[in-house]
Amino acid sequence: MNFRFFSRIFLFIFILCLCSGCRATKNEKLRAKQGVIDLSVINLKNSEPVCLDGEWEFYWKQLLTPQDFKGGRPSITPAYMALPAAWNSTVIDGLKLGGAGYATFCLLILPGKGKQDLILRLGELNSAYRLWVNGNLLVENGLVGTNAIQEIPAQSVKLPRLHLEGQPVQLLLQVSNFHHRAGGVIAPLRLGISDTLEVEQFKQWALALLCVGSLIVMGCYHVGLYWIRRGDRAPLYFGVYSLLWAASSLTSGTTDWAINLFVSDYPTRFVNRVDLICFVMTLPVGYSFFRTLYPGCFPHYFQQITTVVALIFTGVGLLFSSMTFTSMLPVLYLFSVFLIVYCLYLLFCAMRAKMEAAGLILSGFLVMGAAGINDMLCDLQIIRSIYMIHVGMFVFIFFQAIALSIRFSRAFHAVEHLSNELSDKNLVLEEEMSERIRLESEREEARAEAIRASQLAALGELAAGVAHEINTPVNTIINSADLLLEDDDRASLEHDVEVIKKQGRRIAAIVKNLLFFSRLPSKDMIPFCVADMLQGTLDMIGARLRKEHVCLKIVLPPDLPNVLVRPQQIEQIFLNFITNAVHAVAERYDDTADCKLIEIRALATVVNKRPFVRITFRDNGAGIPAHLLACVKNSFVTTKQSGTGLGLSICQQIIDEHGGSMRLESKVGEYTEVQIELPSIIPAGVSQS
C-alpha cells in the first residue's frame, strides 16, 4: 500500500459525502416558488419523502401569527428566502443580516386530491421555533423570543402528524435565534408518510446509538487497560478520546440529538457547551494518542500547539455566550482540517517506517478524518450532506481494535517465547543455585574448622603454662601429705588438710576452665558475665603472665551488664588478645623487666540507641607498624615470626557474628589497644534512652 492508494480512498469517501443528502431538491417542479409549493403532481403515499425546499415568504423582525393572515396576506410585504439556509448575510432593505434575530416563514402547500395522513420532519432550526398549520399550533420547540433573555433555545427532531383533506395547507413558522452563529432553517423540512419517515428516523437513531454505545464501551475498555497496565498511556488517551466523541455525538445534531431519547428536560445551553467543549478536547487528546504510539514521528511542539488551541476555545466556551463560541467555530474547523491532514501525513510516514500497526490506524483515521471534514463542511452549509462522524469514529475504533489485537497477540507471543527461554534458564539457575549452596556450605564448614583450629592452637600454646600451673599445687599437695604422715600435732594436721583442699580446688578450677574452653561452642547466644569470662581466661593463662613478669591491671564496674554471647568464643577472643599482648611486651622488654603492663577495662555504652559493653585491651609493648595496621585483621597477616595470621581474622568473624565491632589502634614502640563492643542486656529499671 502507498500514498496514492490512500489518497484515492480519501477522495472516494469525500465524493460520497458530497453526493449524499436530500435528493428531492433536484426536481425543480417540487421546489417552492414565491411561497407556494405544488405537490399535486405526485402521490405522497407512493413516493419518497419530499423536501420542502425553495422560496418561502420571509418576514424579518416579525413574529406573525395566524391572526395576521386572516383575510389573505398581512399588510407587510414579504421577502423571499430559499430554504434550507441560514439567514446570515441575507440582504433586507439594503441591510446585511447577522446570525442573531427573529423572523416568520410562510409556505402554502398545494396537495393532491384525497385524504392523506402525513408526517412533517423538522430538524435543525436554530434556536427556537413555533409552527402553525392552517391556523392551528402544531409543534413548538423551545420558546421563541425577541432577544436572548426571552428566548429559550431547544434542539431536537420533531415528527408532528399532518392530516390533509385535499385543500391547500398553510405552514406558518416563527423562528428566533440568539444562541447560535447560524440562524433560521438550515436543514430541509421533509414531508412524507409516517411509515417511511418514522422508520427512517428510528434507523438513524439506532445507528447513532450503536456507534455511541461502541464508543462508550471501547472508551471504558481502554481506560481499564491503562488502569491495569499504567506504563503504556496509549490506551488511556484512546479511551478518553472515545468517551469525548461519545459525549459530543450524543449531545449534537450529528445523531439528531439522541440525548432526547433518554432525557426529556435538560438545560440546552449546558448541553451545547458539553458538545462543543468535548469536540475541542478531542484535538489534543487524539494527537497525544498518536504521539504516544509513534513518538518519533509526531513532534512534541505540535502537541503543545493543539493543547493551547483547545484551552483557548474551552475558555471561550466557559466564559462567553453560545453565540460567541459558535461564531468562532469556522476558525476551529479550519484548524481541525489542518490537524487531520497533518496527522494523516505523519501516520503515512509511520507506515513507511514500518512501525507497528501504523497502516491499520492510518486506514481507520482516514475514514474518520473524511467523515469529520464532511460534518464540518456540512455544519458550515458549504455542502449538502448528512452527518457521518459517529460512523467514522466507529470505523476508526474498529481498525484500532484490530491494531490493538495485533499488538496484544505479538506481546503474548513474545511473552510465550520469553517464558520458554526463562524455563530453560530457570533449570540452569537451579543447578547454579544448588552448586552455590553446596559451595557456601563447604565455606561455612571450612570457616568453622578454621575457628576450631584456632581454638586448638590456643590450647596447644596454653599447654606448657597449664602444666606449670597444675604442677605447683600438685607438689604442694604431695609435700603436705608427707607432713601428715610425720606430724602428730592436731593443729598442724588441720593446716595441712586445708592446704591440700585449697590446692585441689585450684587444680579442679583450672581443669574445668580448660574443658569449658575446649568444648564446641553452642549455636545459641546466652547472657553471660564479662568478669566470669575474663576470670576463666586468666585462670588458664595466669602462669604465663607470672612467668613473663607481666603486670595485669583490670578495671570492671560492679554494675556492668551481662552480654549476649557464646561464652567459649568470647573467651577465645580474650585469650587471643592477652596472648598477643604478652608477645608484644616480651618483644619490647627483656625477661626480667618489671614494667610490662597489660590493662583491661570495660564500661557500658549505647550505640545507635542499642546497649553495648565496650571492653578495651591495652599493652605497652612494641606496637604494630603503620603499614600493617590497616591489614592486620586480614587472614595470614601477622607481626609474629612464628604466627599463622589467623588470630585477629577469626576474632573479627566471631565479633561480626555477635553483632559487635572491633577497632585496633597502635603506635610503634609505645602501645597497642584493641577495643571491642558486644551487645548487652539492659538491666532491670534502666531506660534505654
Structural commentary:
- Helices cover about 50% and strands about 15% of the residues.
- It is an alpha+beta fold.
- Strands 1, 3, 4, 8, 11, 12 and 14 form a 7-stranded mixed β-sheet that branches.
- It is rod-shaped and about 170 Å long.
- It starts with a helix and ends in a 10-residue tail after the last strand.
Topology readout:
Layout: H1 3-19, E1 36-38, E2 50-51, E3 54-60, E4 79-83, E5 85-86, E6 91-92, E7 95-96, E8 101-110, E9 116-121, E10 125-126, E11 128-133, E12 136-141, E13 161-164, E14 169-177, E15 184-185, E16 190-193, H2 194-228, H3 234-250, H4 268-293, H5 300-319, H6 322-327, H7 329-352, H8 358-379, H9 389-486, H10 490-518, E17 526-528, H11 530-547, E18 551-555, E19 563-565, H12 567-588, E20 597-607, E21 610-619, H13 626-629, H14 647-657, E22 661-667, E23 671-679
Parallel strand pairs: 1-8, 18-20
Antiparallel strand pairs: 2-16, 3-4, 3-8, 5-15, 6-7, 8-14, 9-13, 9-16, 10-15, 11-12, 11-14, 17-19, 20-21, 21-23, 22-23
Helix pairs in contact: 1-8, 2-3, 2-9, 3-4, 3-9, 4-5, 4-7, 7-8, 8-9, 9-10, 9-11, 10-11, 11-12, 12-14
